[in-house]
Amino acid sequence: MIKEILKNITGKKQAIRFPGGSAVSPEDAAKIPALQEGMGKVFRRSLRIRQVDGGSCNACEWECTALTNPVYDVERFGIGFVASPRHADALLVTGPVSRQMELALRKTYLATPEPRLVIALGDCAVDGGIYKGSYAVTDGVANVIPVDCFIPGCPPSPAEIIAGVLRLLEELARRK
Amino acid sequence: MMNNEHYRELGGREFRDHCISLCRSGFTLRLMFATDERENEGCFKIYVVFSETGKDSFQIPFLKLKGDDLSYHGLTPDIPAVHWYEREIHDMFGLTPEGHPDLRRLVFHDSFPGDSYPLRKDWKISEAELREWGEGLVRKEPYHFMEVKGEGVYEIPVGPVHAGIIEPGHFRFSAVGETIFFLEPRLFYTHKGTEKLFEGFGFSEGVRLAERVSGTSSFSHGTAYCMAVERMSGTDIPEKAKAIRTLLLELERLYNHVGDIGNMCAGTGLAVGYAAGALIKEKLMQLNERVSGSRYLRGVNVIGGVTKDIFQYADDILTTLETATGDYKAFMKLLLGAISHVERLENAGQLSREIAMKLGVTGVAARASGVNDDIRKAHPHLLYDRLEFEPHTTTRGDVFARMMVRAEEAECSISMIHALLERNYGRELAAEVKDVSPHACALGYTESPRGSLFYWVKSDAEGRPLRVKLRSPSYCNWPAVPFAVHGNIVPDFPLCNKSFNLSYSGCDM
Q1: CATH class for the region spanning A25-160
Q2: What is the mean pLDDT of residues A98-108?
Q3: Are A65 and B215 inside 8 Å of each other by CB?
Q4: Beta-carbon separation of A134 and B136 below 8 A
Q5: What is the mean pLDDT of residues B456-461?
Q6: Do B230 and B341 have their domain in common?
């Protein structure tokens, strides 16, 4: 263990590459903290995300979990997942929003302090995806709470999620 | 293709006695479901599927419910493993099991209208009722949690929105001090009406939906569904397709098991283990994407075979596996050498063999509690009869045992993939699909990373889906979680839960 730590301190560091053909490179993603800084008092320097599962098949969840693995490691871009909506700047909602999750999602939205962003992640969250039209779903997050950004894909890969967040922040910076 | 499904119609009491006697003579209960066949036969039917011990054969007794009397002798008092199935049938079809000790709603929450049964063919619901269901403000059929009374007992409600990135479910702990005395999970928040949706799709479009029932078992779900439809239509798939399916099933098991072992580290706070596990999983998922175009192996299965020749990537698979195996061995060495980690796992979340048997627990959880059950051995399908392997069982039944069963199975999957890649299997990827004949039915099954997975399909008079029943392993294992966490401390719950790693979406359908 000590050897490993020493190697880490003294060794030459190399960023792990995203897989070939990814929607975004680590260099692009590195712009994220600067963008946030530009927003001044709104989000300070980091974007804190609360993930809410609105009845997804769990593939989107595992892609969000993958964002924290050593390859993507989004903390270095100033993106982090928090445990409570009260700590969050943004809600990241997956799934077609099943009717039995609708109330919970509304409550989570209201528990998030303003200004807040809502990101709908995955094809189901965009318009219900393959579950569109089922009696038990509401056909997308926008039918339940206002959405600022859509990231389609079934599921979107971790790099696509990072690209989506980057796009959203660039858009916000332009608007300002 | 040998038909191993033996259907047998039985009348009321006889049906119950027959099921009980099958269960007593050691047959394994696999699933129970109902169908609405009033249009064609003027009745509802209830099927129970049992596996014969040591023989590749399913005994499927069924019962017809005609006329206005929609109740039958419940099986739950004698076969506890069916207690969820009977509640689900009650919610979905309005068929009442007499003598069921707990007929509270299972699938639907309080604001869903009473006397409304979605899987009946003539079911209708108004827009207003749907809206009220979503708003959740009117409690139409109130659900009462079980209450534990006594000095010092207090309740901790958790969820449905949890602290981590996981699926939604509500847990109601009754704790005494830090010790969990009783846990009642309330699930089905992610209920999406999947089975009803299948009925509106054609059989071939259903594959896409089956792949989206539970993300991390996408390929297993797709395979079991395709297998059911292929068996129903009498389609024999080419050997190459069988080999590719077997290979991808094992790749799916591998990335899940490695990922699950890594995730358990998050439960004990071993950050370095968590990162190491996540890194190996990521490499395997990138391999998935390179060979199939999807990190979750979606889009490969079609009715009749597969769409992609995975064997052209044999070199990539072998090199990736070689590095992954090396990393994996170092990873396991790290975990087993971390005393603080292992001590938390040992004796935590114990599930006894007796309870596992009674509740019909399946997969890793069953094998870790000494139940030697693996669909790959019990009902050999695809190329599993040609591969040499033994189900790994241990009798400890704790979190550590579940980790070790996964570890051994992951190694076993690696050697199976090597064995599969050594041979040649013709060129044809998919067979011509025969038309589905009217009123045909069949089972499809496989061993997913979490355990046994079943689909049962039946066609109507036009050869379109009349009923698609899916039974994911998580559905069998959720009722066992409260037994495993009893007597553990509340902070160990996430660890126990991660050791089962159940899918909510697969269970809630």
Answers
A1: alpha beta
A2: 95
A3: no
A4: no
A5: 93
A6: yes
